[in-house]
Each structure stands twice: as C-alpha cells, then as structure tokens.
Amino acid sequence: MPLRLVLTSKAMLSRVVTSTVILATLASGCGESSPAAPSTGPTGDAASSADTLVMDRNGSLGDTGGALAEANMPEGSSSKLPDAGGNDRDSASNPEGGIAAPPALKWTQEGPMYLFLGIWGSSPNDVYAVEAGGLIMRSTGDGTWTGQVSGTGERLTGVWGSGPNDIYISVRSNVVLHSTGNGVWDHHVFQSGVTFSGVWGSGPNDVYVFEAGADHTKGDGTWSPQIIDPDGQPTLAMWGSSATDVYAGAALGTVYHSVGNGIWIPQKQKLGVGTSSEIAGIAGSGPTDIYAITYKQIFHSNGDGAWKIQNLTLATLESLTCVWALDKSAIYIGSSSNLYRSGGDGVWLGQPIDPKHPSMSIYAVWGTSVNNLYVATTLGIYHGTP
C-alpha cells in the first residue's frame, strides 16, 4: 500500500506534501476571523427542573456565562422522572436492569460563543476545543480558555490525542494539524481536494483521519490511504476498542469493521431507513459494548455484528448528532436540542444544555467523569458539573 509522506520540502510525494509550523500564540484580535457572534447568549440565571425519562459569539476570549441548570424536555416525551441530584448517579432505571443513569448536571457556558465542532482532553486540566472558523481553544479546567493559532481559516472538524504531548486535529481541507502540546501546530498537507471530517486513534502509533475513506499513520509523519466503502460513500464516524478492533460508519447505513490491517469488512445489517440511514456517530466502552447512531435512531451491538435498536422519542425536527461513552454505565448522545444519557440499560434521560437556547445543537461530548463533562455546541463550549 502506498505511503503519503509529510516532507519538509516543497516537493510533492504521493498525496501528502510539506508541513508548516505555526506558533500558537493568539493575538487579541484573532477571534474576529471566526464566524460572527450571535446577538444574544446565555445568562447567569439558574433553575432546577425534572429530567425526562424517554423509554421506547457573543463575548471575548475567556468570557464565561452563568451556570445553566436543567429544564423540562419538550412536549411529547413519554414520561418524566424527578432528578436525583447530587453527585450520585440517578436512580432511574428500567424495570429489568436497575442500572443507575449518570446524573444531570448544571451547565456553564465558557469561552467565546462560536460554533465548536470537537472537544477532547488528556486530563481535567488539559482540554482542547476546535471551532468552525479555524480557532483552537485550550483550557486548564478553570473555566477560562486560551486561543491558539491553527494557521488555517478552514473548519476544524475534530480533535483527538493519545496524551498531552500528541494531539491531532482534522480539518475540512487538505490538512491535518498535529501538536506535541507546546502550542505549536504542525501542518500535514495532503493533495488538493482531500478533506477530513474527523479524527480517531487507539494510541500514538495508530491514528486515522477520515471522510473519503481514511488515512492512517503510525505516528511517524507518513500516511497510508485506506478504502472503506468501495462505492465511495463518505466515512462519517470512526471508533475502536483497540488497534485491532475498529469500526467505521458510512453514509447509507453501512458499518464497516477492521482488525487494523487496512481491510474493511461491511457488516450485513444496515442501520437506519432511507434518508435517516447516515451514521452520525460510533462509540463504545469496549469490544462488546458499541453504540452507533443515525440521525433518528440509536443502535447497540455486543460486537457480534448484530445491532439492536434502543427506542428514543425525538421531537419532530430533532436529530441525533454525536455519541460518546465514558464507560459502560455512562453513555452520552447529543442532538440538535438535547443531551441524552444512559446507564447502559437502554433507558435514556434527556436534558437541554441551555433552556434559553432550545435549538442549540451539540456536536461533541467529552469528560473525565460523570461529574465533569464538556460539550461543543453551536453557541460555544459548555461545562457540566454537579
């Protein structure tokens, strides 16, 4: 299989060419290159309310909003359950499982109110978020965010790292960013026309960027192309439990699996129906606990190739956008208006992040515990705590 090398000269070799080093010290006016801020934003008002049990850029860098407590779900939900509160997991469970769900959290808007598409961290005091206008933000977990120059004005679509000294960012352009955590971002530049919608890896020697198939690196600066869907359907999501157990989700509902050898095998069962079959996310806690979402449905697999639907009642115009698992008893799904959480028993509790902005989409979830979560949204970064 051909390699795509990142060179230090201007010569082109295969699909990847030279990289440029960008110092990540943000000037005070740098945020102005991002999309225009909305005219209104979250306030500091806080309120308490109930969960719903569903069975079947307005501010400068470093600005923070107020704490935002949960509110009732939209009308049409099947039933309601009072929140358990506190630091313990909710007592809600289905009749069979008796599994406690992760707790509802109070949410605080942090940083600029721009469109953020990805969030990841190596620890509670090392968190990165990436924005649609090319801005990289980093926080030490204290509520303030420092901007870093990405060297591109293109949309940053995802962020992942193997640790504090090895971070990758995918770009809706022919470039992948890499940093050793020192605020300097190296550009891995691919041939014109290539773009990336996400990044995932199992470790420093096993990293993928994907959209038109995938490109894989062993962390040495060379990239190998991989064909995932033979018909050219875009790869929309990727996750694995290890380097030898990797899943990719394509348009039209096909899930592919690889043992890390560059060969992708389609699973027989397709997910979703019609226009709702595009796979919006894949995540899990291990090889026998995997979740996949289309825009309208949740699926779970034990790793045997079979996928079972978990029922969730969505509002008419609501769509699922992302899925992330902290562990087997703490799974989170973002939508175009709510954050859903489950203890792993198929029961999902919903909560709007900001009741004042009920149509705020959630594009990524990450955290270090059920009491320390971050979400990337259309109106900035929100931090959830008890």
Please, could you describe this protein's structure?
- The protein has 386 residues and is mainly β.
- The protein has no helices and 34 strands.
- It has strands at 4-5, 16-17, 21-23, 51-54, 64-68, 79-81, 106-110, 116-123, 126-131, 135-139, 146-149, 156-163, 166-171, 175-179, 184-190, 196-203, 206-211, 213-217, 222-226, 235-242, 245-250, 255-258, 265-266, 279-286, 289-294, 298-301, 308-310, 320-327, 330-335, 339-342, 348-351, 362-369, 372-377, 380-385.
- The strands form 7 sheets. Strands 2, 3, 12, 13, 14 and 15 form a 6-stranded antiparallel sheet that branches. The chain has a 6-stranded antiparallel sheet with strand order 6-4-31-30-29-28, with no helix packed on it.
- The chain starts with a strand and ends with a strand.
- The model is unreliable at 1-97 (pLDDT under 50).
Compact overview of the structure:
This protein is mainly β. Helices cover 0% and strands 47% of the residues. Strand 22 and strand 23 form a beta hairpin.
Key phrases:
single chain, 386 residues, mainly beta, six-stranded antiparallel beta sheet, 34 strands
Topology:
Layout lengths: L3 E2 L10 E2 L3 E3 L27 E4 L9 E5 L10 E3 L24 E5 L5 E8 L2 E6 L3 E5 L6 E4 L6 E8 L2 E6 L3 E5 L4 E7 L5 E8 L2 E6 L1 E5 L4 E5 L8 E8 L2 E6 L4 E4 L6 E2 L12 E8 L2 E6 L3 E4 L6 E3 L9 E8 L2 E6 L3 E4 L5 E4 L10 E8 L2 E6 L2 E6 L1
- Major pleated sheet: 6 strands, antiparallel
> Care to count the β-strands?
34
Number of helices: 0
Coarse structural class: mainly beta
Helix content: under 10%
Query: From the alpha-carbon coordinates, what is the Rg to the nearest angstrom?
Result: 20 Å
Strand content: over 45%
pLDDT < 50 runs, ≥5 residues: 1-97
> How widely separated are the two ends?
50 Å
Mean pLDDT: 80
| Shape category | globular
